[in-house]
Amino acid sequence: MAKCDFCGKGVSFGIRVSHSHRRSNRTWKPNIRRVKAIVDGTPKRVYACTRCLRSGKVTRAL
Fold first, then answer.
1. What is the distance between the alpha carbons of residues 25 and 2, in angstroms, rounded to a whole number?
2. What are the Cα distances from residue 18, in Å, to 12, 14, 15, 24, 26?
3. Do 57 and 7 contact (CB within 8 A), yes or no?
4. Residue 2 confidence (pLDDT)
5. Which of 12, 36, 49, 50 could form a disulfide linkage to 28, CB 3.0–4.6 angstroms apart?
6. What is the pTM of this model?
7. 8-23: per-residue pLDDT in tens?
């Protein structure tokens, strides 16, 4: 679910490093919003990241 329908941005994986340098896995989740947008001329509920919303890639349906 945590994937933008417009740019494809999804979950990233990495390693959390503590002060004592113990390493464990961690994730970065994108800021995804469920919005009503115009897709192929019809309003539809889609998942979009806030970067696509800000840049104007997503046409919001009112």
1. 18
2. 19, 13, 10, 9, 12
3. yes
4. 85
5. 12
6. 0.78
7. 999 999 999 999 999 9
